[in-house]
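User: Some background: our group keeps a shared notebook of sequences we're curious about, and every so often someone picks one and asks for a predicted structure to add to the entry. Today it's my turn. The entry only has the sequence so far, pasted here. Could you supply the structure so I can complete it?
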Amino acid sequence: MSENRYETAVARYFEAWNARSAEAVARAVAAGWTEDGGYTDPLAEVTGHDAIAAVIAGAQAQFPGFEFRLLGAVDGNHDIARFGWELVAVADGSAPVAGFDVITLAEDGRIRSVAGFLDRVPATAEATAAASEPAAASVTATATA
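Assistant: Of course. Here's the predicted structure to add to the notebook entry:
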């Protein structure tokens, strides 16, 4: 991993999102986020390792055969970093989803919080997400209770 703490944190972030088994996701989330770490985007607001892993599992189920890739450089100052990303189909390189995230780091370099923004989302994903919002809300309520 990079010696730059921002790049290291973002590399761990992508390790979690691109892990291929529940156990690997859980390990990567534990390595990347603080115990009380959070993740917020337009479709989810969760706190804690189990809830973050559940959000990642949901995205992987919705987009099998895809992986998250860094888009551009990581930019950071103090304990905050920002970066763009794409969700890329391994088979053909298409990238139907793209976004921009801002992370806050803890002293140990792990992620304390993520604020995610979706810049490009296919219409079918928006419809699926809207239909599953009550489920996401229950994960949020459970995770933050």
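Suggested note for the entry: Residues 75 and 144 are 29 Å apart (CA to CA). The longest helix spans residues 123-144.
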